[in-house]
């Protein structure tokens, strides 16, 4: 599984022959790329409807959309998407098969909304666990999985559900503070999730979320967890299989 961070919360995830793009938003200082520079993914995953998470989603409207049903309806009306997993999106707790990947949606503690002249309910904010095998209660040491937490605060579901049952190997965690967790809560999240690899995201895009990423690295160490913090450069790829 290959993970490429394009700044903010935008990740390109390759699982076997399947490519998934999460929260496309290229108007951020960590990337020099335009949406047209990105190889067209097989799936686009949206965590919620804020502009800094769906800003460039319409550039990929020929792909299959994965989001909650309300956000799918908005994307069909306003962003040009025609297809969605199952024809109506998915919802919290569900798992869908997306090519070589399995995508499980989990809640995120955040607000939601879209900037539009129309009134839309765009459902509950979410995060995704992407794995190369179907999640079960039977531990599979050969499975590889990646948790994109979306925009969220620290929540006990990370410790009680996502970590022990979905068993992510790596997690991308918002660390910008102000609108989401900051470095110290994100480090606690990495500890609760029991991941091997932790990546900061959702930082430095706007003045309120500018941080010193060394704080995240130091807070990870302070938890005493086995997680290794990786501060990626924009457009850098990390191979989870190495």
TrEMBL record:
GO terms, molecular function: hydrolase activity
Keywords: Hydrolase
Signal peptide: none
This protein's record includes keyword Cell membrane: no
Domain Metallo-beta-lactamase: residue ranges: 7-202
Matching SUPFAM superfamilies: Metallo-hydrolase/oxidoreductase (SSF56281)
A Pfam family the protein falls into: Lactamase_B_2
Cross-referenced NCBIfam families: PRK00685.1
Family to which the UniProt record says this protein belongs: Belongs to the UPF0173 family.
Protein name from the UniProt record: UPF0173 metal-dependent hydrolase HAPAU_20060
Species the sequence originates in: Halalkalicoccus paucihalophilus
